[in-house]
Amino acid sequence: MAKKVKSDNESEPEIDPAIERELEANNMLLFNIGEAYAERLGALEREFDQKRAPVYKTRDAILAKIPQFWLTVFLNHKTINSMLTREDVDVLEYLETFTAVTTSDETAKRETHTVTFGFRENPYFKNKVLTKKLTDFIPEEEVLTRVDTIESTKIEWNEGKDFTKTQSSKDVPKPGGKRNREDQGHFFSWFCGDDDIDSFAEVFTQDVYINAYELFLDPEDDEEDDDEEDDDEEEDEDEDE
C-alpha cells in the first residue's frame, strides 16, 4: 500500500472568512439540490410502481398456468437455492402463486417487504396462503437499516409433517445441476422464524419476483463454487503427485 504524503506544515489550513462563507453557501445549494432530487426521485419511483402493479398482476395470472414455475425459479436462484432442503422442495411442489412487494412510508422512515405464497391442497399443512411481512426501520443518519417488526402466518401443520424441527436432507440441486454442500437451514424455518439475518425477504422482493421469468429460463451461474471445486481438484492432484 502506498504511503500517504503529508505536508511538512502540520498546522490546519487557514481559509479567508469571506471565502469560507462563499463555500458554505455553495455547499448548502448543493445540499438543497440533492434533497430535491431525492424527493423527486422518490415520487417518480412511486408513480412507476403504481403503473407496474397491474402489469405484475396480469403476469402472475399467466405464470400460474405454468406447472411448478415458482419452484423452478427458486431452484434457479443461487441465494434462495442455498436455503432449500429436500423437504422444502417437496412442499414447494404444491406452490401455485407467489408475490413479493416492497412498500415505503417516507414519513415513518419505514420500508415493508411482504412475501405471499399460495398453495394448492397438500399433505403437509392446511393453509392455502402463507404471508411473511418484514418492516425495516431506516434511521436518519445511519447507513444500515434494521428489521423493526416481523409477522408471519402460523403454519397449521398436519400431524407428523412439521419437518422444521428435525434433521434436514440437504440434497437439492444447485443452479446448473450441482448440489449444495452445506446445510444452511430450512426455507420453512426461515419463514416461521423471527429474524431475517440474510435479508431473504429483500432478495424475494427486489430480485426473485421482479426477474422471475428470466430466472425461470436461465439459472444463475455459480462461478465462485466452480472456482472452489477447481481449486479442490488441483489440491487433490498435487497431493497425489
Strand content: 15-25%
Strand order of the largest sheet: 1-2-3-4
The counted number of beta strands is: 4
The percent of residues in helical segments reads 40-55%
Shape: elongated
**Main beta sheet, described?**
4 strands, antiparallel
Explain this structure.
There is one protein chain. The chain is elongated and about 80 Å long. Helices cover 44% and strands 15% of the residues. The protein has 241 residues and is an alpha+beta fold. The chain has eight helices and four strands. It has helices at 17-63, 69-76, 78-81, 86-92, 187-192, 200-208, 212-217, 223-240, and strands at residues 95-105, 110-119, 129-137, 146-152. Strands 1-2-3-4 form a four-stranded antiparallel beta sheet.
Set out the fold topology.
Elements: H1 17-63, H2 69-76, H3 78-81, H4 86-92, E1 95-105, E2 110-119, E3 129-137, E4 146-152, H5 187-192, H6 200-208, H7 212-217, H8 223-240
Antiparallel strand pairs: 1-2, 2-3, 3-4
List keywords for this structure.
four-stranded antiparallel beta sheet; single chain; 4 strands; alpha+beta; 241 residues
Summarize the structure.
The protein has 8 helices and 4 strands, in the order ααααββββαααα. With 241 residues, it is α+β, with helices and mostly antiparallel strands. A 4-stranded antiparallel beta sheet has the order 1-2-3-4.
